[in-house]
Amino acid sequence: MSSQSNKIHLPASAHVRSENIKIGKSLQDKAKIYLDQRWWIHCRQAMFNETCTDNQREICHLLQALVKSGSAVCPMAEPVFSELLKIPDESTRKNMAVVIDELSLGYSLQSDATLDRIELLDVLTRILKIKTEGHNIHNLVWTHLSWVLGLKLPIDQEASLVDTARIQSDYFDNRVSSTTMVDFVSEWDPVTAKAAITVDDRQIIEAANNEIDSYGRQRPLFSELFLRQCAVAVEKLRPALINDVAAYLWTKMKGESAGILPIASRDNVASKFICILINRYVEAGTAFELPAVQIPAAIIAAKVSSGHKFRHGDYWDIRHARFALPYCTHFLTERSLASLVVGKPGNAANLYQCKVLSDEEKIIKELQAIT
After folding, report:
1. 8 — phi, psi (to 5°)?
2. How far is CA 37 from CA 63, 106, 211, 312, 331, in A?
3. Which of 71, 103, 113, 119 is deepest in the core (most CB within 10 A)?
4. Contact yes or no for 208/310 (Cβ under 8 A)
């Protein structure tokens, strides 16, 4: 009997989870250098001989060398993909995809919704003292860029469960090994790309600036604003709680004999979990446990307490920080965002041991020091 026929095929969801954990473990010893949109653009300019500074060109070459040597990777993430969609010119979009493929090696952080779920389960199982498989969260948050937008697998209604698992697992493995960002953008047309952009940050920025104006000179302290933003951010996690986290935790707490948590009861259970989280984060020192809450809350509170207005694009900067700070070793971004996440009052970068860099000379020195 062949080794292929002897192979045990896990259900597709278990196989995908296993493969993603392997990716996480394979990246443990690499420098994970997250680039915001500005730095992806600089790398594209350098690689395609467009106009850029000598420092920017050297930084790109250093990144290429580090990735090629196996010392580093510049991962994809959902905000990078979203900003890629906004590029109107097809040629520029494809060039950017080439850059992403070379520097990311196909690795990506999980989608926003998946990270929310992973982080919620990690925190709530510890708070509620529920036994889990014990995987390090840093091994759960990675995947391949071909799956960052969600997992879709073929289904054959007439196939057995064993054959279905084999078909889906083989499909997943083949797609992971063969799909590139260039493949994705080659399938888009400008109309499709434009239609896929679902978030317009103008209204978000306007609402935030109206709040700043409403305070006048009597702006609250950072600590007060931070806790207020924590409550807002926790409430935004309600969909993740309702969709499956609440049901999973219910079963873990009550036991399999309790059955499945009824859909009608999930909102009520989600509200109880939200209260648990908000009460815990009354102490600002524990909020870092849930990056989906701490990072946007800290950045927004720091910005509002300073009295500086939000600008177009700040929404995307916050999203980049939300992905980069907890799971990457380095975050290359612009000076304005770096000042909000390094040191007090936000202190986000220090909480997660991520080096946030914006000065080009310092970036060069840091990259040269990575071996």
Report:
1. -85, 125
2. 15, 17, 27, 14, 11
3. 103
4. yes
Dmax over CA atoms of the chain, in Å, equals 78
Structure tokens at 173: 């493995």
3-class DSSP string for 14-31? HHHHHHHHHHHHHCCCCE
**Cα-to-chain-centroid distance, residue 101:** 17
159-174 per-position pLDDT tens digit: 666 666 665 566 666 6
Q: What is the pTM assigned to this prediction?
A: 0.85
User: What are the tens digits of pLDDT across the range 78-99?
Assistant: 888 888 878 888 889 899 999 9
Strand partners, 72: 31
Cα torsion 202, 205, 208, 209: sign: negative
The residue whose two tokens read 């909000």 is 340
In sequence order, what are the beta bridge partners of 32?
73
Task: Using alpha carbons only, give the angle 148, 135, 73 rounded to the nearest 5 degrees.
Answer: 45
- Residues contacting residue 352 through CB under 8 Å, at least 6 positions apart: 288, 291, 325, 326
Instruction: Name the DSSP letter for residue 355.
Output: E
Measured between alpha carbons, how far is residue 358 from residues 5, 128, 193, 220, 325 in Å? Answer: 53, 40, 30, 29, 14
For 260, phi then psi, to 5°, come to -85, 135
Asked if 321 and 79 touch (Cβ cutoff 8 Å), the reply is no
